[in-house]
Amino acid sequence: MIQIEQLSKTYQTKHGTVKGVDDVTLEVKTGEIFGIVGYSGAGKSSLIRCINLLERPTSGTVKVGGQDLTKLRGDGLRKARLKIGMIFQHFYLISQKTVAENISFALRAAGTPSKKIGPRVDELLEMVGLSDKRNVYPAQLSGGQKQRVGIARALANEPAVLLCDEATSALDPNTTLSILRLLKDINRKLNITIVLITHEMNVVKEICDRMAVMQGGRVIEEGRVYDIFADPKTALTKEFISSVVSFNVPEEILEKCDGTIVKVLFKGEVAGDGIISDMLQSYPVKGNFLHGAIEYIQELPLGIFVMELKGDQADVSQAIHYLEQREAIVEVMEHGN
Ligand SMILES: Nc1ncnc2c1ncn2[C@@H]1O[C@H](COP(=O)(O)OP(=O)(O)OP(=O)(O)O)[C@@H](O)[C@H]1O
Q1: At residue 336, what are phi and psi to the nearest 5 degrees?
Q2: Architecture label for domain 251-334
Q3: How much distance in Å is there from the Cα of 23 to the middle of ligand 1?
Q4: Less packed terminus of the chain by CB within 10 Å, N or C?
């Protein structure tokens, strides 16, 4: 649905050329929620703004629904953009207009006939849960309500794609959750493709199907959110994951351990603790649990255990091998003495 190919965006500044996006190739499928995560300066905004050509790429192509937007200009581009809605961190509502007027503004701009505007605004307000705020001004709304107006406005012209630029970064955790649930609801009901950029991994964990990690303008890792949480490849991705899923065992506890410390992950419905007890019965090793949790990512369980395994090194190695054969992902964090 969205095909980004060899896309680069460079900026000319008085200090020289800055690469915002550096040779990115990505595909976002129809109807999925795709998250792009990275620290400040990674190139997320530049990339998302190239998707609707708010920024014109320096090179490369962006196809939405098979149409290469980089080939369009003027009216053609304006029409194509109507099929791509966008919401922003700071909402950008018009303060002198009521909630209904903010939404109808988008409909008018797209040439919607007057008699269709009222009913469509009502429909959109109901969708975002703001029917009772029709005639109030943005200043009278909370941050979460403002973003709901932003979402209604972005959906006004029935876009196929919704771009979310740090849409929850100005909101508190509870409001963030309610906006993310609304986005997921809209995605499922309308089959709209959502691309969101964020520096918060919990946002990705909450609603995204697939994700990419950006650093220095490049995509350094991409895949299913669940798979990336289970088996991250790069140090940066691991860092992002550790901000929402902790495998940390206090240093004082680790210092008391003289066995081999292993992190064990079980994907999906596999009952991790059952496999571990099978292992302990089958091999002459002792196991101490130091940390254990079942995380749910997109409603799929991911079992995470940190254990100390004690025994003869050869037996410990065999026990680890047994876990791997039972489809666990095992990482040795510290070898025993
Ligand atoms: N208009 C611009 N002019 C010059 N340099 C820019 C411009 N926009 C972005 N950059 C540079 O491009 C790089 C990527 O910036 P970008 O804003 O895309 O990153 P980001 O991941 O979205 O970060 P943030 O969350 O802080 O916006 C940075 O080095 C930034 O300084």
Answers
A1: -75, 165
A2: 2-Layer Sandwich (3.30)
A3: 15
A4: C
Angle between helices 173-190 and 143-155 (to 10 degrees): 20
Q: How far is the CA of 68 from the centre of ligand 1 (A)?
A: 24
E strand or H helix at 91: none
Contact 213, 240 (CB under 8 A): yes
Which atom of ligand 1 approaches the CA of 166 most closely? 25
For residue 38, the ligand 1 atom closest to its alpha carbon is 21
Q: What is the pLDDT along the chain (337 residues), one digit of tens a residue?
A: 899 999 999 999 998 999 999 999 999 999 999 999 999 999 999 999 999 999 999 999 999 999 999 999 999 999 999 999 999 999 999 999 999 999 999 999 999 999 999 999 999 999 999 999 999 999 999 999 999 999 999 999 999 999 999 999 999 999 999 999 999 999 999 999 999 999 999 999 999 999 999 999 999 999 999 999 988 999 999 999 988 887 778 888 888 888 999 988 888 766 566 788 889 999 999 999 998 888 888 888 888 889 999 999 999 999 999 999 988 888 888 776 5
Place of tokens 């680890």: 320
Is 251-334 in the same CATH topology as 2-240? no
Q: Give the Cβ contact number of residue 38 at 10 Å.
A: 24
Report, at the CATH architecture level, how domain 2-240 is classified: 3-Layer(aba) Sandwich (3.40)
Q: What atom in ligand 1 is closest to the CA of residue 13?
A: 4
Contact 262/332 with Cβ under 8 angstroms? yes
Q: What ipTM did this prediction achieve?
A: 0.96
Q: Probe ligand 1: pick from 12, 17, 18, max atoms within 8 Å of CB?
A: 18
- Nearest protein Cα to ligand 1, atom 29: 41
- Cβ burial, residue 220 (10 Å; 0-12/13-18/19+): middle
Ligand 1 mean position to 281 CA, how many Å? 55
In the chain, what are the domain boundaries?
A: 2-240, 251-334
**Residue 8 near ligand 1, beta carbon < 6 Å:** no
Task: Choose one of 45, 169, 219 to mutate for the ligand 1 pocket test, by most ligand atoms within 8 angstroms of C-beta.
Answer: 45
